[in-house]
Inverse folding.
């Protein structure tokens, strides 16, 4: 229990001279919403610090969720994203420090192994094709994901067959 404004000011000092350029990497949008609600409850904080974090945050779950999803098209948890990269979650989930360390491990793993995103992305496209887009695009994605070439003529034929 220290006052929120005091902790936020200490965080600002910790970031130091890089404050204006800093990107605050988060996993999901929950933390940014909690930060806003907490600031509303505690009037002892410098609101410009909150605004800077809001402006300069980056939701890494949104990024990685474009390439790695579950079978229903949902993003994975931090723990499950780590598993995709053959990493174990270290520490306790929902502990702020442990979550931050594990997010750093995930960031590094994505940087070191982008081929895993490439391998998993066709599954995302197949899932999208099966649920949210029409049959012609689903056929196109399936063929391309299976390693087959698709010509413009073949694409036109699918469109013609589908819409006639």
């Amino acid at each position: 229990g220290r006052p929120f404004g005091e902790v936020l000011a200490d965080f600002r000092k910790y970031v130091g001279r890089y404050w204006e350029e800093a990107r605050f990497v988060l996993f999901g949008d929950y933390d940014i919403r909690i930060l806003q609600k907490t600031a509303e409850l505690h009037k002892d904080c410098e609101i410009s610090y909150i605004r800077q974090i809001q402006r300069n945050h980056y939701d890494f779950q949104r990024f990685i969720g474009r390439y790695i999803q579950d079978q229903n098209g949902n993003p994975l948890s931090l723990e499950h994203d780590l598993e995709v990269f053959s990493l174990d979650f270290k520490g306790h989930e929902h502990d702020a420090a442990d979550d931050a360390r594990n997010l750093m491990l995930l960031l590094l793993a994505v940087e070191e192994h982008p081929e895993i995103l490439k391998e998993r992305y066709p599954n995302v496209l197949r899932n999208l094709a099966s649920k949210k887009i029409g049959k012609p695009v689903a056929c196109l994605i399936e063929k391309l994901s299976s390693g087959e070439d698709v010509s413009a003529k073949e694409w036109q034929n699918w469109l013609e067959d589908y819409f006639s």
Remarks:
- The chain has a mean pLDDT of 92.
- The two ends are 68 Å apart (CA to CA).
